[in-house]
Amino acid sequence: MRFLKNPLFWIGLLISVGALFLAFRGLHWAEVGSALRHANYFLLLPAAVAMFFSLYFRAIRWGVLFHPRTHVRVGNLMGTMNIGYSVNNLLPLRVGELVRAYLIGDAENVSTAHALSTIVVERVLDVLAVVLMVVLLLPFIDVPAWAATPALVAGAVFLVLGVLLATLSLARRWALTVVDNGARLLPARYRTRLHEAAEAVMEGFGVLSKPAVLARAVGWSFASWLCSVLTMFIVQQAFDLGVGFEAAPFVVATTSLAMLVPASPGYIGTFELVAIKGLENVFDASRSAAASYALAQHAFLYLAPMIIAGTYLWKQHIPWRRLTTRPEWRVQDTEAMVESPAGGGLQVEEEHTGRGRAGT
Question: Any idea of the CA torsion for 291, 296, 302, 305, to the nearest 10 degrees?
């Protein structure tokens, strides 16, 4: 429970509480309940298929980001990625990203530092994709300032970040020299480990400076986001909101941008506020219907990764409590963070699997 001492946790909690208040203030809950009862839940079946493929394409993209490694198995990528998403839904401060980096390091014998750097590249690609989505919507709808301005700001920031990371990758020798010079005061064993971790990080950023590999990653990003839009469109039809297709990419883009705001685990409150206000103010949807949709859509997005994660944990004989009550993956100090180039992390022991490392 160390996170309770972190001020970011309390800031996020306050933001979530405030967002929930603004989202649900003045709602007629009887109408929300009626909308939930009369929704066409059969449409959630094709929505679930679209959601699965969105996550599956994300897993493939993550594998591309491990270039030049080409043999990282999609099954392990899919499982560990969704474990990370699930942990983010349950614990604050996005510790799920660290969990999945350690898990894939254990399952595929890759550097945890390399895995973490690929996750950073993922975030850059995702934010730029969301910003592009907002820009493409401009000719079709009147995008409000509360959506357009943050999108443009985030796009500029992450574009600069992407260029910076690509530059660091191209100037790899110089960057490693800077790291080595900065580590001179550390003991020799720490200097070696820090150098190895920095090399692994540079390798992860290297995708941004390789046009062919980057194009593949962008292509899988496009496929994943298209499935995400399709998922939201189908669920919106299930609740008969009376909105067109353009409402789906708008809600995808704005709720994704809202995830950049610190909030409680699972982005509770921020998702509902943005979805309801967007559907009500931009598309003239009924507020009660929009609220019922937002609640159902958020639950759908919340549960899907957890089902996939649970299946993977069961298949690999990894008890869920090891991710929550015995976090071997947690960085205790600098030495643990760079313990070995292979990533260390959460080991799947032979008595649990009879096979040694996960996924083998």
Answer: -150
User: Phi first, then psi: what are they for 137, rounded to 5°?
Assistant: -80, -20
Asked if 14 and 267 count as a contact pair (C-beta separation under 8 A), the reply is no
Of 131-135, 277-281, 329-333, the range with the lowest mean pLDDT is 329-333
CA separation, residue 280 to residues 186, 243, 258, 290, 339 (Å): 57, 10, 17, 7, 51
Question: ω into residue 68 within 30 of 0, thus cis?
Answer: yes
Across all residues in the chain, what is the average pLDDT? 86
What are the angstrom distances between the C-alpha of 117 and each of 48, 191, 270?
Answer: 30, 20, 27
**How many other C-beta atoms are found inside a 10 Å radius of the C-beta of residue 320?**
16
pLDDT tens digits, one per residue of 267-315: 999 999 999 999 999 999 999 999 999 999 999 999 999 999 999 999 9
